[in-house]
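User: quick one, sequence for these tokens?
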């Protein structure tokens, strides 16, 4: 089974900012490249933080209301206030940064995003240098795999080569990423194994099993 990894899905041509990149320069980059965040790198091209639209908006949120209709914020956390006052990436960025490795699976990257409540991960090499950026939308691309490719992987890699089942002892039908398994296995204990391996195939949304074992026949 060949799982797609971060290096297969990440954006390689990453727009970056330096520590001294100004507020307006960052805003211009976000607009020009139609992106919502930019990694900040040091002189060695190692990511040290991320500046997002939310970081930039803090400055706007701290401005007085021109119409005088809104009450001023009564309390602003120190960190947010510092970002609102910042004029360069050094002060605007969110740090420390959460990174990914190119060899990570989609599952690994998704779990790190979820646990750290981030939408994107800079990808670094063994030296810590920035080589890519992977986002939520990049990870979701595995679900764009054609049903025919998913079925071929299940039928050939999972059922025949990995589990050693006789050809077409079990057949997989795939519609919109949902897998239905029909056929016969030797032991009842094999059924959850087959289901688990099929769920691990990239692009699978769900698995339904109608398998029977030979003792039932």
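Assistant:
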């Amino acid at each position: 089974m060949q799982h797609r990894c971060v290096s297969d899905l990440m954006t390689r041509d990453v727009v970056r900012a330096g520590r001294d990149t100004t507020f307006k320069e960052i805003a211009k980059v976000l607009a020009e490249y139609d992106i919502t965040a930019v990694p900040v790198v040091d002189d060695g091209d190692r990511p040290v933080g991320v500046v997002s639209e939310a970081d930039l908006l803090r400055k706007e949120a701290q401005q007085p209301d021109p119409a005088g209709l809104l009450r001023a914020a009564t309390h602003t956390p120190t960190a947010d206030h510092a970002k609102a006052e910042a004029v360069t990436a050094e002060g605007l960025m969110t740090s420390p940064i959460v990174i990914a490795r190119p060899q990570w699976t989609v599952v690994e990257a998704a779990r790190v995003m979820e646990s750290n409540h981030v939408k994107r991960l800079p990808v670094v090499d063994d030296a810590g240098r920035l080589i890519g950026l992977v986002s939520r939308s990049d990870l979701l691309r595995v679900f764009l795999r054609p049903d025919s490719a998913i079925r071929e992987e299940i039928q050939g890699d999972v059922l025949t080569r990995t589990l050693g089942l006789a050809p077409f002892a079990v057949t997989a039908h795939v519609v919109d990423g949902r897998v239905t398994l029909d056929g016969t296995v030797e032991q009842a204990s094999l059924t959850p194994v087959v289901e688990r391996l099929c769920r691990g195939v990239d692009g699978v949304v769900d698995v339904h099993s109608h398998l029977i074992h030979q003792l039932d026949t």
